[in-house]
Design brief:
six-stranded mixed beta sheet, alpha+beta, seven-stranded antiparallel beta sheet, 348 residues, 3 domains
Length: 348
């Protein structure tokens, strides 16, 4: 049986009359009950959650494994409706992707619950192989623009979030790949211990965050990650800057003279010496750091200039774009999550 038929029968919950369950096999894709796999049980691509609004709902694994598996995932993404997560990030947080369920009156007490999710978005595009490097440029088409399948064009830019998933049956030596740029929504999960976790994307990386307060919707969860001063600043119309788990709220102070007066420092020279490059506070389990020039007053951190995301050796990680704050001083606030997990290397 070809791959499309296996996925279609899994998505439509068609039982195999010989077995009496949703069990079908192809050469490299097979399904057994509520789970469909690429090659083997080591890579589940989707898990059946149940019925939502009259249609079957699935949770899908967005991890990358190989170009062939990516082709399998593209078929699953097309036919199986529902949110996408990183299975490895969820596993790191202690959540089994294949042990989730939708809210219902007869929920299994041994399963965690998908409380809410926002829909993914699919932008259908071409991408062209670079003649010098041999790599495919994500979302790029000849002439410096993205060309969508309906013929419309937009200025070329690599999206901050999402990943390119090619259509199946495309060879690596092809000059042009067709597929879609997949921008993930978000998923809110409540565990059996009544802990809440938010799964989504940040700067093209999957993350799972344990929330400090329970939430009922994805919107509420994202809002709850913002400390009160950040929410108040946004309500007042200030432009808050973010890098990863850190928010930066602009202050009226610009330049070293202004901040010297605030800190009662006599000279600009002394102010520059005190405003040394420092690592923003981090949890012991965090491998990477946010680094910037700053001053500390009590519990408040004032920063300016550039904010970089670096590894233990001080090299840029590329996980988050560098933030340029300029001469304006900002107050730095970390989000309210209890802890978080991310999965790197997932996107083109």
């Amino acid at each position: 049986m070809n791959h499309e038929k296996v996925v279609s029968r899994f998505a439509n919950r068609v039982e195999n009359p010989k077995i009496g369950s949703v069990t079908w096999s192809g050469s490299r894709i097979w399904c057994d009950g509520d789970t469909i796999y690429s090659y083997g049980t080591h890579f589940p691509m989707a898990y059946y959650l149940g019925e939502a609004n009259g249609q079957s709902c699935f949770i899908k694994n967005g991890d990358r494994y190989s170009s062939t598996t990516s082709g399998h995932q593209s078929i699953v993404q097309r036919d199986c409706k529902g949110p996408t997560v990183s299975r490895t990030s969820l596993s790191a947080a202690g959540i089994n992707m294949c042990n989730l369920q939708l809210p219902s009156d007869d929920m299994d007490p041994h399963k965690d619950v998908v409380v809410d999710w926002t829909q993914d978005r699919m932008d259908y595009i071409y991408r062209v192989k670079d003649k010098e490097t041999g790599e495919f440029l994500p979302g790029f088409y000849e002439g410096g623009y993205c060309e969508y399948m309906d013929g419309s064009q937009v200025s070329y830019s690599v999206p901050k979030q999402g990943m390119f998933i090619p259509y199946a049956h495309q060879e690596s030596e092809d000059e042009i790949q067709e597929g879609y740029w997949h921008v993930l929504g978000a998923v809110l999960i409540r565990t059996r211990e009544n802990k809440c976790f938010l799964s989504s994307l940040d700067d093209r990386r999957y993350f799972v965050a344990e929330l400090s307060k329970a939430a009922r919707t994805v919107t509420q969860a994202f809002r709850g990650l913002k400390p009160r001063p950040v929410r108040e600043a946004e309500r007042s119309g200030l432009k808050v800057v973010r890098q990863g788990e850190w928010f930066f709220v602009p202050t009226p102070y610009e330049g070293y003279r202004a901040i010297a007066d605030l800190f009662h420092i006599r000279t600009i020279k002394e102010t520059k010496e005190k405003a040394q490059v420092r690592v923003l506070p981090y949890r012991p389990e965090q491998r990477h750091r946010h680094v910037c020039r700053g001053l500390v007053r009590g519990q408040t951190i004032y920063v300016c200039g550039r904010v970089k995301h670096v590894d233990e050796d001080g090299y840029s990680t590329g996980e988050h774009p560098q933030v340029k704050l300029g001469d304006r001083w900002y107050r730095a606030y970390r989000n309210t999550e209890i802890q978080s997990w991310s999965q790197s290397g997932s996107f083109d």
